[in-house]
């Protein structure tokens, strides 16, 4: 993988973003670790894709959450890999995903880290690397596993590295 894809001059984290990332983590830590009923009219927890990667180079977060169970299916832990075009900070990606998970009844939600994803549909490549100042480095190897298991990017070459920003 070429780590020169995103230059270090694009580092945009500032004190305000670090404070907001910490606030978001604290909010998640204080939430119930027990399942709650999904909000009426919201998405079923199984309908939320585990992976959403926008085209181009963007920040991403790796999120772990417990899916609510039912009488037929036990609750289970799911891992999500989400990037978002236009997200200035990793917390902006998290702020997009977290309400979706919460409204579907997910609980024990944890942002386990972040980094960068470069998705090039033309060359069918996805590169995952770097870290988040606010959430720390994600387990990029796990992120690649989640992307592969999703089946959304069959035929793509996936690379990961702990190098670069």
UniProtKB/TrEMBL annotation:
Belongs to the janus family. The active site is at residue 90. It comes from the Eukaryota. Substrate binds at residue 59. JanA and janB regulate somatic sex differentiation. Residues 1-50 are annotated as: Disordered. GO terms for biological process: cell differentiation; sex differentiation. Residues 1-16 have a biased composition (Polar residues). This is Uncharacterized protein. Keywords: Differentiation, Sexual differentiation. The keyword Lipoprotein does not apply.
């Amino acid at each position: 993988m070429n780590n020169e894809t995103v230059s270090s001059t694009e580092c945009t984290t500032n004190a305000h973003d670090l404070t907001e990332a910490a606030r978001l983590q604290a909010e998640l830590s204080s939430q119930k670790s027990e399942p709650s009923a999904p909000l009426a009219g919201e998405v079923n927890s199984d309908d939320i894709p585990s992976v959403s990667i926008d085209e181009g180079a963007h920040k991403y977060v790796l999120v772990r959450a417990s899916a609510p169970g039912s009488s037929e299916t036990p609750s289970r832990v799911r891992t999500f890999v989400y990037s978002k075009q236009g997200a200035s900070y990793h917390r902006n990606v998290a702020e997009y995903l977290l309400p979706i998970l919460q409204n579907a009844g997910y609980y024990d939600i944890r942002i386990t880290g972040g980094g960068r994803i470069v998705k090039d549909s033309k060359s069918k490549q996805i590169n995952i690397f770097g870290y988040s100042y606010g959430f720390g480095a994600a387990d990029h190897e796990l992120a690649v596993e989640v992307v592969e298991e999703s089946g959304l990017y069959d035929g793509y070459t996936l690379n990961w590295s702990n190098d670069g920003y």
